């Protein structure tokens, strides 16, 4: 794939948070059976459309603000590529401003451990690291269980005199 196209299609941390939020909510709703008869339940089609509408309006408000710091969260390479299209030119000539829309990515914020996990899960190297961490976690867990069993067994096999504190004369 073209390297410039790869840059343009790279999801940002904020985009991954957005996608993760939507997919988790849809999965939770499906798992709990929270479906309502109406179409406006969280995780439903209308709800998903509303999430994307908010996302796109935030993107457009950020473009209008002409602040590269805000646009970084949407992938500046994508935004710059969009700005060179006919679609952008038509939109820019018809829109004056987006009232009541705050510029900035709806999922902007500091990087968390969960963000690192999302980034790792998207790469082959990350999947290998996650597998190694899982294996290490299982191994450590098994070692701790074995050590606990050993200590419990050792403690229960001690005679009652072994567990009493020494007396003042040094005996038991």
Would you give an account of this structure?
By secondary structure, the protein is mainly alpha-helical. The mean pLDDT is 79.
Question: Which helices and strands appear, and what pairs or packs with what?
Answer:
Layout: H1 3-9, H2 13-32, H3 45-65, H4 68-72, H5 76-83, H6 86-94, H7 113-121, H8 124-157, H9 160-163
Helix pairs in contact: 1-5, 7-8
Task: Summarize the entry for a quick read.
With 172 residues, the chain is mainly alpha-helical. The chain has helices at 3-9, 13-32, 45-65, 68-72, 76-83, 86-94, 113-121, 124-157, 160-163. It is built from 9 helices and no strands.
Mean pLDDT: 79
- Main pleated-sheet profile: none
- Pairing-aware structural class of the strands and helices? mainly alpha
DSSP, total strands: 0
Distance between the termini: 78 Å
Number of helices: 9
Pattern of helices and strands? HHHHHHHHH
Radius of gyration from CA coordinates: 28 Å
What is the beta-strand fraction? under 5%
Q: Low-confidence parts, pLDDT < 50 over ≥5 residues?
A: none
Q: Percentage of helical residues?
A: 55-70%
Dominant shape: elongated
């Amino acid at each position: 794939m073209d390297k410039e196209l790869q840059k343009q299609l790279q999801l940002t941390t904020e985009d991954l948070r957005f996608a993760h939020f939507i997919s988790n909510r849809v999965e939770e709703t499906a798992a709990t059976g929270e479906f309502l008869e109406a179409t406006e339940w969280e995780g439903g089609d209308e709800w998903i459309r509303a999430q994307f509408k908010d996302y796109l309006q935030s993107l457009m408000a950020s473009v209008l603000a002409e602040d590269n710091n805000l646009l970084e969260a949407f992938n500046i390479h994508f935004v710059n590529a969009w700005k060179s299209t006919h679609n952008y030119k038509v939109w820019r000539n018809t829109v004056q401003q987006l009232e009541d829309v705050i510029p900035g990515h709806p999922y902007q914020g500091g990087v968390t451990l969960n963000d690192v996990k999302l980034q790792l899960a998207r790469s082959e190297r990350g999947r290998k690291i996650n597998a190694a961490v899982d294996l290490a976690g299982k191994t450590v867990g098994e070692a701790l269980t074995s050590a606990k069993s050993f200590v419990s067994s050792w403690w229960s096999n001690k005679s009652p005199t072994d567990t009493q504190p020494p007396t003042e004369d040094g005996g038991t």
